[in-house]
Specification:
Helices cover 47% and strands 17% of the residues. The protein is of the alpha+beta class. The strands form 5 sheets. The chain has a 5-stranded antiparallel beta sheet with strand order 3-1-2-5-4. The protein has a 4-stranded mixed beta sheet with strand order 8-13-9-10, with no helix packed on it. Helix 2 packs antiparallel against helix 3 and helix 9 packs antiparallel against helix 10.
Length: 434
């Protein structure tokens, strides 16, 4: 086998300055085997050799005769003169240190032989694969022969079938006149199928599970139960949630809620208590009149030479506000700030309309216009302050037109304010260009 014979001195021997050297062989190219030794080792010889195995054995025998083997390090370690060891290696290796052309020829021949062997192996595999394919083809051919034999037996039947097909074609030609009737029948069948599907859908919906709310005693579908829990008032549908009174109809219950004394939203008056006032009792009414009352009771006793004074003070201020009827709001409280606010509302688009409605009906600086109440977060039921000076039940559809009217009044007030202040509308770019 082609390889290399090398002679080196290990790191330990070199560091201790010992005349101990190692002889060895390798088939690895370049210095891969030498790099596996400890760093610091010294490579002395690295010579190519054709029959590396036998050459190494022969050199080890010669070294055992001429030099001292260091068994502590290993079989290939010897102590002796380095120059003598080089001479032994040079004299016993069959080829020269420098590369000979014959060595390259051997190497090329070996490479060529390896390629030929690989090709032969691939050819053998292809031959085996071809043999297996040939066997498969033989099996298929035998199967085809059997099928052909069976087909021969069916030739008479095929002729009979052809005759039958011709008869059927003649009948089909006769039935072409009935195509319109067949189309009508198919359309009727489709309509019946749609009815059947709708009927099955209704049957399936009837099978949906229901659940009973224990608080308000209402039976409902299971998919609506979670939504109902958020808006459940805790009482049956025919009972007032404030006074627990039972009614015979929903309309009578709604009318009662507008006048129920226990409903906190029916309280129209605002009571303000101020303990800082003394000796005064102020009553503020809608006509802005103020009445002051002071009561003093004095009892003098001359026999005991003492004076007792009893002073009774009422420090309650009652402010009575008259709420405007819904749809007749007073917009006089809107000042010059309406221009800036309307610009901000306009930036929000459609959502700015909700802000304008809140500015009119829910403004704390104008409580006389707080004439609408929404009792629940969900639903479209509201209460408005009516012309009979009481809260009336309405739905959102009932008051939609009235809300649009209040929006139009707000915009009229906005335009009037701009005209009074001389504020001009911004011109469009197209108008300025033209």
């Amino acid at each position: 086998m082609f390889g290399f014979i090398y002679l080196l001195q290990t790191r330990e021997s070199y560091r201790l300055n010992e005349d101990v050297f190692k002889i060895g062989k390798t088939i690895k190219t370049s210095l891969e085997r030498f790099n596996q030794y400890p760093k610091g080792s010294r490579l002395i010889l690295h010579i190519e050799c054709f029959d590396v195995d036998n050459t190494e054995k022969y050199l080890i025998d010669q070294f055992n005769k001429l030099f001292t083997n260091v068994s502590d390090y290993g079989v290939e370690y010897f102590r002796g003169n380095l120059c003598d060891m080089k001479k032994v290696i040079y004299s016993n290796i069959e080829i020269c240190v420098t590369l000979d052309k014959s060595l390259d020829d051997y190497r090329n021949k070996l490479n060529y032989c390896d390629k030929v062997i690989q090709k032969n192996r691939s050819l053998e595999n292809e031959i085996l694969r071809m043999k297996s394919e040939i066997e498969n083809y033989k099996e298929r051919l035998s199967y085809c022969d059997k099928v052909i034999e069976k087909n021969k037996s069916f030739e008479n039947e095929i002729l009979i079938m052809k005759n039958n097909i011709e008869n059927l074609n003649s009948k089909i030609k006769n039935y072409r006149s009935f195509e319109n009737e067949i189309l009508d029948m198919t359309s009727q069948v489709e309509k019946l199928n749609n009815k059947i599907e709708n009927h099955t859908i209704l049957n399936t919906t009837n099978k949906i599970e229901t659940k009973l709310c224990k608080e308000c005693n209402i039976q409902m579908y299971l998919h609506n139960f979670n939504k109902h829990k958020k808006i459940c008032k805790g009482v049956p549908i025919d009972t007032c949630e404030f006074c627990k009174k039972v009614f015979s109809s929903k309309s009578s219950k709604c009318n009662h809620r507008a006048i129920c004394k226990l409903n906190p939203k029916n309280n129209k008056n605002i009571l303000i208590e101020d303990s800082s006032l003394t000796n005064d009792n102020l009553n503020i009414s809608t006509d802005n009149s103020v009445t002051t009352t002071t009561t003093t009771n004095s009892n003098n006793s001359n026999s005991h030479n003492t004076v007792n004074n009893n002073i009774t003070n009422n420090n309650n201020i009652h402010i009575h506000l008259s709420v405007n009827e819904f749809g007749k709001e007073d917009l006089s409280f809107l000042t010059e700030t309406i221009i800036q606010k309307t610009k901000q509302y306009g930036k929000k688009g459609v959502y700015g309309l909700a802000d304008i409605i809140e500015e009119i009906h829910c403004n704390l600086s104008a409580p006389q216009n707080n004439n609408i109440i929404k009792p629940n977060d969900y639903g479209d039921d509201v209460y408005i302050w009516g012309n009979k000076n009481k809260w009336e039940y309405r739905t959102f559809d009932d008051i939609r037109d009235m809300l649009m009217g209040s929006l139009s009044q707000y915009m009229k007030k906005y335009i009037e304010t701009k005209n009074e202040l001389g504020v001009e509308l911004t011109k469009r770019k197209c108008d300025s260009i033209s």
